[in-house]
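Morning - heme C inputs below, output right after.
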Amino acid sequence: MRKSNILTIVSIALSVFIFASAWTQEDMENIDNSIFDNPQRSSSMFNHEEHNEAAGLESCIECHHVYEDGVRLEDEDSTDFACAECHEKESAGSIPGLMKAYHLNCKGCHKASDAGPIMCGECHKKE
Ligand code: HEC
Ligand code: HEC
Ligand code: HEC
Ligand code: HEC
């Protein structure tokens, strides 16, 4: 391979890396569903910033929690972790599996607060 080609590849790789690391929750409009093999539904709508503002959610631990011995810690959050880092595909003891964790968290609050979507197609839009 010519040296200039190698340089091009390196600089493309580098710009992808820079782009990826500049991405934050502020740009989020959907939940990343790529962790599910063969997703059955479109990825759920979730505009992180707009949603949390409209819903008046100030505390990150409503969703990004940390538990110790089954008790949620009120002064620690897990904003640096994906849900999938703790929630496996299948439930394990008191830790719900990933899909269940999302549904309990999202639909659970929508039901409890009588606001926000509960029907499948309101979150998983038809593509
Ligand atoms: C209504 C639930 C909810 C609330 C409240 C919430 N988040 Fe999130 N946040 C999410 C979900 C869901 C994701 C996607 C997680 C995943 O893909 O595993 C996410 C992702 C993130 C990410 C990771 C983005 C990336 O690079 O992948 C960061 C950082 C983050 N949130 C920060 C915050 C902060 C800071 C707060 C409080 C000011 C907050 N969040 C409040 C649900 C919430
Ligand atoms: C650092 C690990 C960790 C991360 C990250 C995490 N969880 Fe959890 N989650 C747990 C544990 C442990 C439990 C079980 C608590 C218990 O023993 O009752 C739990 C329980 C839950 C429950 C059931 C109890 C409740 O609070 O309603 C839901 C729903 C849930 N998680 C959703 C989520 C979502 C959605 C995300 C991502 C935004 C997430 N979790 C991120 C560790 C984590
Ligand atoms: C702690 C409460 C709470 C949690 C957790 C929560 N929501 Fe909501 N959500 C709300 C409320 C309240 C509204 C209505 C806000 C309004 O009046 O516009 C809403 C509205 C929405 C809407 C419609 C408005 C919009 O922003 O497009 C969608 C879609 C939505 N939620 C998706 C989700 C998803 C996906 C999750 C889980 C990752 C989630 N929500 C978790 C409280 C919550
Ligand atoms: C409040 C929003 C919300 C509602 C309502 C909702 N889901 Fe989900 N669902 C999610 C989120 C968030 C995920 C995590 C990954 C994603 O975005 O697809 C998920 C994941 C899934 C998955 C696993 C990933 C896949 O595509 O295979 C399935 C299956 C699923 N939902 C089916 C349903 C069905 C069926 C209904 C109606 C009975 C429903 N969902 C209602 C938010 C929602």
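Note: The domain at 25-123 is CATH 3.90.10.10 (Cytochrome C3).

O.
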